[in-house]
Amino acid sequence: MLYRYRMPRSTLTREQIVRTAIDLLDDEGLDGLNMRSLGTRLGAAATAVYWHVQSKDNLVVLAGDRVWQEIDLPDGTADDWRSAVESTASGLHAMFSRHPWLVQAFGTHLFHGPGKARYDDHVLGIYETAGFTPDQADRAAGAVLTFVLGNVLATAAETSLTRQLDRDGDAAARFAETMTKAREVAERFPRLRSRLETTAATEYAAGPDQAFEFGLRALVHGLAAELAPSR
């Protein structure tokens, strides 16, 4: 009798499933994604969801490719390519921050699809317009992607850890306890101790403000130096 109130397979679309999966992944992370929970959100049987996306792993790839389409892609010119690189990298950073599960999924899934291809092709175009050779453009794009991924890793890890700690108890209390212990250890070392004397413990844990912007500017400056001799 209950089956009559579930969404029939024919009324489901892959787009619906992928969008709902993204919401579920944002709320629960990779570990929280399963077809039963997704079917409940959709009002459909898990078998109907499987019929459209084949497997959980394939669904993660579809969801991952879909969120790449959220990134704005500004045009770059030969004279203003640095701003375009920084803008696209910042957009990528913001997307990963909104969807921290994607950072974790990079270790277990091979992502591909029109969303990511659109981003990759546009970024390569920015570098080639600036005067980079195709090989140089490939290396530059890879360096920036690796930098962004490394920078958002802490955010993704904190989100995942907070979920786990919340399941086991009070995440805020555990973080506060750990910060106290980390501060005690840091006080043994002169440079860390000097920063603790002028910086709140939470700021010490987070690192210097605007670290991403600083690192990105330095990286782009280095890429420009690589371009100069070829020009």
What would your notes on this structure say?
This protein is mainly alpha-helical. It folds into two domains: 53 residues, Homeodomain-like (Arc Repressor Mutant, subunit A, Orthogonal Bundle); 158 residues, Orthogonal Bundle (Tetracycline Repressor, domain 2), CATH 1.10.357.10. 73% of the residues lie in helices and 0% in strands. Helix 4 packs parallel to helix 7 and helix 7 packs across helix 8. The protein is flat and about 60 Å long. The N terminus is likely disordered.
- Rg, please? 22 Å
Number of DSSP helical runs: 12
The total tally of domains equals 2
User: At CATH's second level, what is the architecture of the largest domain?
Assistant: Orthogonal Bundle
Overall number of strands = 0
**Strand-residue fraction?**
under 5%
CATH topology of the largest domain: Tetracycline Repressor, domain 2
**Residue-averaged pLDDT:** 85
> Order of SSEs, N→C?
HHHHHHHHHHHH
Which structural class best describes the helix and strand composition? mainly alpha
Envelope shape: flat
- The CATH fourth-level homologous superfamily of the largest domain: Tetracycline Repressor, domain 2
* CATH first level of the largest domain: Mainly Alpha
Biggest pleated-sheet summary: none
The percentage helix is over 70%
Distance between the termini: 72 Å
Unreliable residue runs: 1-5
Question: How do the strands and helices of this protein lay out in sequence?
Answer:
Blueprint: H1 14-28, H2 35-42, H3 46-53, H4 56-68, H5 81-98, H6 100-105, H7 114-130, H8 134-168, H9 171-186, H10 190-196, H11 201-206, H12 211-230
